[in-house]
């Protein structure tokens, strides 16, 4: 259980175009999902917290107009990188929060999406 | 403020020898701590977690970690390394936020290499 998928796994686009990345919780409903960014050989940095039916909460320094997040259902959150530039090239990872034993929450991570902007 | 410091960016061991990946944390209260593993171009897999229960935590694939409050440490160990253990390992602290949400703060990561 608690499987999270991402699509696509890899995407290459031209500078100035927009790219949408999907994050799905396959066997549970997630009111909260998270989007992370990972540069090569670096750690994960939280970009935003996505809440179903409401606006996402962005971390300091993340442009909300550039990284559009939509969480329209309990199993799907999307991240759209608008007007992508080469510096947006990165590994984008989503996670979804689910309640586990003991009543606590745990984040389950997707496999990531490698974005390359030419 | 909550933070984690992974003391080694790279660790190299021989197959069959013990593994030690070091992590120190900073927290103003009793933290929840995690170790995640990431294989190349893959997502993260939870190895184990500490949430104020037993201080010695056993995880998957033979890994374990001990929470030491006096040393503010949460080092990851394994008695005998396998080739398949070669990956990036992240120590993570959970920061509780308003509304019951938790924010995960990741360490810089330790790359484990296992040699035959």
Explain how this protein is built.
The complex is a heterodimer of chains A (118) and B (116). Chain A has 118 residues and is mainly beta. Chain A is 0% helix and 55% strand. Chain A is globular. The mean pLDDT of chain A is 91. Chain B has 116 residues and is an all-beta fold. Chain B is 0% helix and 56% strand. In chain B, the strands form three sheets. In chain B, strands 2, 5, 6, 10, 11 and 12 form a six-stranded mixed beta sheet that branches. In chain B, strands 3-9-8-7 form a four-stranded antiparallel beta sheet, with no helix packed on it. Chain B has a two-stranded antiparallel sheet with strand order 1-4. The radius of gyration of chain B is 14 Å and the shape is globular. Chains A and B meet through strand 5, strand 9 and strand 10 of A and strand 6 and strand 11 of B.
Annotation keywords:
heterodimer; A: 7-stranded mixed β-sheet; 4-stranded antiparallel β-sheet; 0% helix; B: 116 residues; mainly beta; globular
- Number of distinct beta strands of chain A: 11
User: Quick one: which chains have the greatest interface?
Assistant: A-B, 24 and 19 residues
- What can be said about the biggest beta sheet of chain A? 7 strands, mixed
The helix-and-strand class of chain B reads mainly beta
Mean pLDDT of chain A: 91
The fraction of residues in strands of chain A falls at: over 45%
Question: Residue share in helices of chain A?
Answer: under 10%
Question: Termini separation of chain A (Å)?
Answer: 37 Å
Number of helices of chain A: 0
Taking the alpha carbons of the first and last residues of chain B, their distance comes to: 41 Å
Provide a count of the helices of chain B: 0
Find the count of extended strands of chain B (DSSP E, 2+ residues): 12
The largest β sheet of chain B comes out as: 6 strands, mixed
Determine the fraction of residues in helical runs of chain B and give it as a percent range: under 10%
Mean pLDDT of chain B: 90
Q: Which segments of chain B are poorly predicted (pLDDT under 50) over 5 or more consecutive residues?
A: none
**Low-confidence region ranges of chain A:** none
Taken in chain order, the helices and strands of chain A follow as EEEEEEEEEEE
| Gyration radius of chain B, in Å | 14 Å
């Amino acid at each position: 259980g608690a499987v999270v998928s991402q699509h696509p796994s890899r995407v290459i686009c031209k500078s100035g175009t927009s790219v949408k990345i999907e994050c799905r919780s396959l066997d549970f409903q997630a009111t909260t999902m998270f989007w992370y960014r990972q540069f090569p050989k670096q750690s994960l940095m939280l970009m935003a917290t996505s809440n179903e039916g409401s606006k996402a909460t962005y971390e300091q320094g993340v442009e909300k107009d550039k990284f559009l997040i939509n969480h329209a259902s309990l199993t799907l959150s999307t991240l759209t990188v608008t007007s992508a530039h080469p510096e947006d090239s990165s590994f984008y990872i989503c996670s979804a929060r689910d309640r586990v034993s003991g009543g606590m929450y745990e984040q389950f991570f997707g496999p990531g999406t490698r974005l390359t902007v030419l | 403020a909550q933070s984690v410091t992974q003391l080694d960016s790279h660790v190299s061991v021989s197959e069959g020898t013990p593994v030690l990946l070091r992590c120190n944390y900073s927290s103003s209260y009793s933290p929840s701590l995690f170790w995640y593993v990431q294989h190349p171009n893959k997502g993260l897999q939870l190895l184990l977690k500490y949430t104020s229960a037993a201080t010695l935590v056993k995880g998957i694939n033979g890994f374990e970690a001990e929470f030491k409050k006096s040393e503010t440490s949460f080092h990851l160990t394994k008695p005998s390394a396998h080739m398949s253990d070669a990956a990036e390992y992240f120590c993570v602290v959970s920061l509780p936020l308003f509304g019951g949400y938790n924010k995960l703060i990741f360490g810089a990561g330790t790359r484990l290499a296992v040699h035959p």
